[in-house]
Design brief:
Layout (H helix, E strand, L loop, with lengths): L49 H4 L27 E5 L12 E6 L16 E6 L11 E11 L2 E6 L3 E7 L3 E7 L4 E8 L7 E10 L2 E9 L6 E12 L2 E2 L5 E2 L5 E7 L4 E9 L3 H12 L4 H16 L2 E4 L2 H14 L4 E2 L6 E3 L5 E3 L7 E2 L3 H4 L3 H8 L1 H15 L21 H10 L6 H12 L7 H20 L3 H12 L2 H7 L20 H4 L7 H8 L1 H13 L16 H4 L3 H13 L2 E5 L4 E8 L19 H11 L1 E2 L7 E4 L6 E7 L2 E8 L5 E7 L2 E3 L4 E2 H5 L2 E8 L8 H15 L3
Parallel strand pairs: 26-30
Antiparallel strand pairs: 1-2, 2-4, 3-8, 4-5, 5-6, 6-7, 7-15, 8-14, 9-10, 10-11, 11-12, 11-15, 13-14, 16-25, 17-20, 18-19, 21-22, 23-24, 24-29, 25-26, 27-28, 27-30
Helix pairs in contact: 4-18, 6-7, 7-8, 7-9, 8-9, 8-10, 9-10, 10-11, 14-15, 15-20, 17-20
Length: about 725
């Protein structure tokens, strides 16, 4: 979604065609493969851990999320999973029945043709009936399983493939069903984007090394990666040299007995082959596969278990599956010795106890995912903030450089994310951040109306950080620069014309004038005063009532909360609950408006887990879901407060770290409207809750009343009904 190639050519076609398209109905797809029982264990709900409830197959069908069931650790570089044919941008399609192999990296729900697919490994029986360049293998879909940190499948008549991962290491294990000769093939040139170079540094099966360079998402830059693999059969090294053929394909021919296990352990590094070998030997070593998988599962339980909702199992499963996606980016890139490469390709070393992060998609997730990490992962967010500050050193491009340490999409609005974290008490070098943000302002595009709004938001963030640091002259200068967008907003957005509902009208990026109209959330007070509160509420009604809202992309996903921010909680509660639980009409794509809207769930516990064409965008959308389920939303990233609405769960326990615990409790019906908010008995505002109040811990009680209570004005009821009806059935 936020990841098309450039401002002139906004939409990248799918890299690989999908096998079928779902009908435009309100029902979840009923293809037999979608209904396959995947991985959720049959244990009683009381015994389920957060990791047990994660379903990595959600969002892996066609263009419904662009996700993968690959094995991954929290914030890990390695995403070791299957490459199918056909495939989505992450190398896999749940409906595909043929397998190409298994690769170690991919972007998480991003656009264009994706990125990653590094070091693809395949094992096939050799022989005259299966040539070395064999067609893709048939997959036994009934055998396919995935959990947090593991994936497995049987293919090609019974070969069992299993994967697990650590932060920088991956284990791929094959168990063969019958005796025979097999070819283990390792392809260093496989990539979802452009493969720029691939070189074998060593061909020894005991320490196989490759140096890789590939394009990032949309080929706007490049990343460099080093790999070090070790091949074992039944736990023993084989002491062989691989042969290299056309396309740098490395092959090892093996003679196996029934039940033999062939295992490839690989480490990744942004630094060099030695770093990759150190990662492999430190993170994987000689530990059994099951031990590594159990440790990664424990890591997932630790990070996911900081948020504990109470409610039906399927609702908790969708919640944890969403949180699982949130916690996959950015990725920790330090080798075990602390080394990493920076954006210029230079080697750096993280101070002891600190971690360097990379793999950014900030245009997509600065609105939701970054604020969510600041709330539930504040200690990690300090390292993320320091990593963002480092991007500004020497000038920060808005997309990737040619020397990225790992695949990255884009870094717009890093300054907004930094201001948000600073105001939420997360410590980093604010002086360096401000200097970088000020320098960055001169490089921002300001041609189209949306570019002017987005640049204004960045300038506002620089002004606010300067004000926080006592730099009053700089704050005044950048405030004036930020607010200079206002005449344009009044002429273009205050009364959208005939092209107001045209995607990409006037050069807009993946949206309409109506959708970008609400983007200056940092200046909501001025917009409200300019338009008038009553008229603005009416225009919000028009926006939803006429089906102008787009839940499949980020520019307007905050708008349901604007009602509550303006003192009208009922429409927000109804809109958010509808988006969370019901099929709605989705009329928009990144490039245009559909003649017949797709109707379906925005979030669902199924391979078709998102709306058609809706990417997760590196946790941008799944973080929206998590916030909505909590009943909180960061309407203005950069301002340390949340708009409350009715929580989806009766209670949620949040471990905020350092012994602080926040319990969110809903007192009243799930379809009710917020009437009162208290924290440990102290009344809070029903329109905004300060981050600092939440971070002290305690019990936050959100009292709701039934929607037709006499305490709810009929005007609100009418507005809510019109808004939701328009979203369900656009006019």
């Amino acid at each position: 979604m936020g990841n098309d190639t450039d401002r002139g050519q906004r939409t990248c076609p799918p890299a690989i065609p999908t096998p079928f398209r779902p009908s435009r109905s309100s029902r979840i797809l009923t293809h037999p493969l979608v209904l396959t029982l995947l991985l959720v264990p049959a244990a009683a709900s009381a015994q389920d851990t957060p990791a047990d409830l994660v379903d990595p197959f959600v969002g892996t069908l066609a263009d419904f999320g662009q996700l993968t069931p690959a094995a991954v650790a929290p914030f890990g570089m390695v995403q070791l999973g299957p490459d199918t044919s056909p495939a989505n941008h992450a190398g896999y399609d749940h409906a595909a029945t043929t397998l190409l192999g298994f690769s170690h990296t991919r972007g998480v729900g991003v656009g264009c043709g994706g990125a990653g697919g590094d070091l693809m490994i395949a094992l096939r029986y050799a022989g005259s009936d299966v040539p070395r360049d064999a067609a893709p293998a048939q997959v036994d879909k009934t055998s396919e399983r995935a959990r947090a940190g593991t994936y497995s499948v049987r293919y090609d008549g019974g070969i069992l493939a299993e994967t697990t991962a650590t932060r920088g290491g991956g284990v791929l294990r094959f168990t063969v069903p019958r005796a025979g000769t097999l070819d283990l093939r390792i392809d260093p040139r496989r990539s979802y984007a452009k493969r720029l170079s691939a070189n074998w540094a060593r061909l020894d099966s005991d320490d196989l090394r490759a140096d890789l360079v590939a394009g990032t998402v949309c080929d706007q830059g490049a990343y460099r990666l080093h790999t070090a693999s070790r091949i074992r059969v039944n736990g023993r090294l084989v002491h062989r040299r691989l042969s290299v053929g056309a396309g740098d394909l490395a092959t090892l021919r093996l003679v196996a007995r029934a039940g033999d296990r062939i295992e490839i352990r690989t480490g990744l590094s942004s630094v060099d082959g030695g770093g990759a070998a150190l990662t492999r030997d430190t993170e994987l070593g000689d530990r059994p596969f099951a031990t590594i998988a159990a440790a990664t599962r424990s890591d997932w339980n630790r990070v996911l278990g900081r948020v504990v909702p109470t409610g039906p199992r399927d609702r908790r499963a969708l919640f944890y599956t969403s949180l699982y996606r949130v916690m996959q980016t950015p990725v920790a890139i330090d080798d075990p010795d602390g080394r990493h490469r920076d954006k210029t390709g230079r080697i750096a070393v993280s101070p002891k106890g600190r971690t360097r992060y990379a793999s950014w998609s900030l245009w997509d997730n600065y609105r939701t995912q970054m604020p969510l990490l600041a709330l539930i992962q504040p200690d990690r967010s300090a390292d993320i903030a320091a990593s963002l500050v480092a991007l500004y050193a020497g000038g920060k491009p808005q997309w990737s450089t040619r020397d990225e340490p790992f695949l990255t999409v884009r870094t717009e609005h890093a300054g907004i994310a930094l201001l948000d974290m600073h105001r939420k008490g997360i410590a980093f070098d604010t002086d360096a951040a401000l200097a970088g943000m000020v320098a960055d302002s001169a490089t921002l595009k300001r041609g189209t109306p949306d570019e002017q709004i987005e640049a204004a938001y960045d300038d506002w963030a620089a002004a606010e950080l300067a004000r926080d640091l006592g730099r009053t002259d700089l704050a005044a200068r950048f405030t004036a620069k930020a607010l200079s967008y206002r005449p344009m907003w009044r002429s273009v957005f205050q009364s959208p014309g005939a092209d107001g509902d045209v995607v990409k009208a006037r050069g807009l990026y993946q949206g309409t004038l109506w959708q970008y109209r609400w983007a200056p959330v940092f200046d909501l007070g001025w917009i409200t005063k300019t338009v008038g509160r009553a008229r603005l509420l009416g225009e919000l009604q028009t926006f939803f009532g006429q089906g102008l809202f787009n839940m499949t992309n980020e520019p307007d996903i905050h708008v349901p909360w604007m009602f509550a921010a303006l003192g009208e909680p009922r429409p927000t509660a109804d809109l958010v609950r509808t988006i969370l639980t019901r099929p709605i009409a989705h009329p928009y794509t990144n490039s245009g408006k559909l003649a017949v809207p797709f109707v379906g769930r925005s979030f669902a516990l199924a391979p078709q887990g998102f709306a058609n064409g809706m990417d997760d965008d590196a946790g941008g959308m799944t973080a929206w879901y998590v916030f909505a389920a909590l009943g909180l939303y960061p309407l203005v990233p950069g301002e340390p407060w949340y708009v409350p609405t009715t929580p989806a769960f009766e209670r949620v326990r949040l471990d905020l770290g350092k012994g602080r615990v926040l319990l969110i409790r809903r007192d009243g019906p799930a379809d009710g409207v917020v009437q009162r908010v208290t924290l440990d008995g102290r009344a809070l505002s029903t329109t905004r809750i300060d981050h600092a109040d939440l971070m002290r811990g305690g019990t936050l009680v959100v009292t709701t009343q039934a929607p037709r209570s006499q305490n709810v004005p009929q005007l609100q009821d009418s507005r809510a009904r019109v808004a939701v009806d328009g979203m369900l059935h656009p006019r």
